[in-house]
Amino acid sequence: MAKRRTQVGTQATRAHWLEAQRRLEERADIEDPDPNLARDGILPGKWIGAPWDRMPPNCPVEVLGHNGTVTYCRSATGQLHAVERWDMHILTSLFAPKINYLYWGWPAMKKVGTNEDGEPIYKIDRVERDKAMICLVSEGKRRGLFDPEKRVRGRGGWMVDSGAFIWNSGEFLWSVDDRGKLITARPAEHDGYLYLRSPDIDRPWETAIAREESPALSILEDLRTWNWDRPYLDPVLFLGWIACAFMGGALDWRPIVFTTGGAGVGKSTLHSLTQAILGDSLIALVDTTAAGIYQHVKQDSLPVTVDELEAKRGSSKATSIIELARLASSGGKMARGGANHEGTTFQARSSFMFSAILPPPMGVQDKTRMATLNLKRLDKAHGREPVVRDTDGRMILRQIMDGWQEFRTRLLPDWKQTLHKAGFDARAMDTYGTLLAAAELLVGPEALEALGLEISDQERLAEIIRAATEAERAEQTEKWQECLEHLLAATIDAHRSGDRLTVGGVLLEYERGASLELQYARERLALAGLGLRKAGEIGIGPFLAVPAKHPALFKIFQETDFFEGGWWLALKQAPEHIVLRGLEQRYHTIKINRTAKHCLLVDLGAYDAAMPKAED
Description:
Blueprint: H1 9-26, E1 62-67, E2 70-74, E3 80-83, H2 88-95, H3 99-105, E4 107-114, E5 120-127, H4 129-143, H5 148-151, E6 152-153, E7 156-159, E8 165-168, E9 173-176, E10 182-185, E11 189-190, E12 193-195, H6 215-223, H7 234-247, E13 256-260, H8 267-278, E14 283-285, H9 290-297, E15 304-306, H10 317-330, E16 333-336, E17 344-347, E18 352-356, H11 364-367, E19 370-374, H12 392-421, H13 426-451, H14 458-474, H15 479-489, E20 491-496, E21 499-502, H16 503-511, H17 518-526, E22 531-533, E23 543-547, H18 551-557, H19 566-571, E24 579-580, H20 585-588, E25 589-592, E26 595-603, H21 604-610
Parallel strand pairs: 6-12, 13-18, 13-19, 14-15, 15-18
Antiparallel strand pairs: 1-2, 2-3, 4-5, 7-8, 8-9, 9-10, 11-12, 16-17, 20-21, 22-23, 23-26, 24-26, 25-26
Helix pairs in contact: 6-7, 7-13, 12-13, 12-14, 16-17
């Protein structure tokens, strides 16, 4: 086994000492003096504006705003509360553990005796609950409308308006200052966003991690022991996803990784490795639903893994999970109906990782947002059990925090430029560029060069990436092409010599000048609701004429995404030299079964020229 690279010696000792010191400071006693005593010279219930014209001074509960009858508050423990019904339990939840402040702010006094001069002595007996409620609700109205979907951030990685990276571990917000020093603050309202306080997850390593000390180098070596289809690329992409998992909501684009392969190839072991690295910062699931995921995630940007997301006939569960991951890639919102006809929205900003023997059916909009990594059966003679230390994920997180600006301003733009040279579209550049840039941030260019990715030669690197992903990207056909391919493969309700005819077959025989003449071809295609124009003065030709409406076309597309005339809109998305539109009316008017139809013209010659060449 390769020697583990990690921070050792005085640097590691210093990191452990700093962490121990920080945790001791966190245990400082909570100050909440006797409610009967004056606070900063102010007697109980005697603050300016009491009991409800303004908030009492230094109140541990922050009122954020309102929406209808709901008042949003940040409790003394830093958690968000949406309060509609007020009672003593709610007030206690808001102010605990500083309950004495609640009694001091809105006291109900009780006479407990007299002093030596015969004057009555009063002590606080209970809370004037209604006065406290009126004060908090009034403050919510003064603060204005509050939308928790736009302004609330939970645990995970985020980017502030200045471009800096911030990590919310639950108990603290963590960032790195200009001198490379780790700084902390309690979750609160910062730069217009409310960061929630929640159960603590992994915290960043206390000291900076040099690249040669990074555990990511050993993790990459462990990942290479799996039998990947592309051993020089797939382990790098997977390592990049681990980094993206920590970045979460700070990323403009969160790529999805889907590992596939038969039984016994190590998919579940990969999930175990990922869980060991990410620790409490990961939401690891097996049998779940989309609703179950967003109920777990809420306002967090923590990564989500789903093992065994298999294709199951008649089940839409996997499809809805893929849809949620697709929305999370760009941070899109999902809206769902709720009780009392009140809708709810959910905005996921998590990085997703899936695995399956046979993935569920996916559209091109899903495939372009993910890197599919195929695994082959392991060679047991070369396998080894990965070793992960509980500090590995924290060190990687610290690397991300220290290198965030380099990632944003240099690495990611450089990789996108390389992928542009490789002929990738914008979505593929976002997906692969983010993964590769994140991996380089952790292990550096030398480690990637050692795997065969020639970082120093951008032209050569572009060629390597292009060749490695060619088959995967070939499956990511655009909707117009998918529509046209379905149409060409459609059977025509006619027979010849016992054979069923297809649209593409009829066109091919006509173009080859075989047994089908123009009129005969037109008659056969008319049975499918289509027309045919021979090659002439426009384009290359011949031209398949496709109307917007026809009963036969409704039947052909009824079980597809292009039903009810959707084929017309899909074909209009094709390049204008392939699907012709906007010509003179006489070119678009085609007779189909004696009826003149306005049609889109598919230039079959231009289409053939644009498609990949195949050997006969």
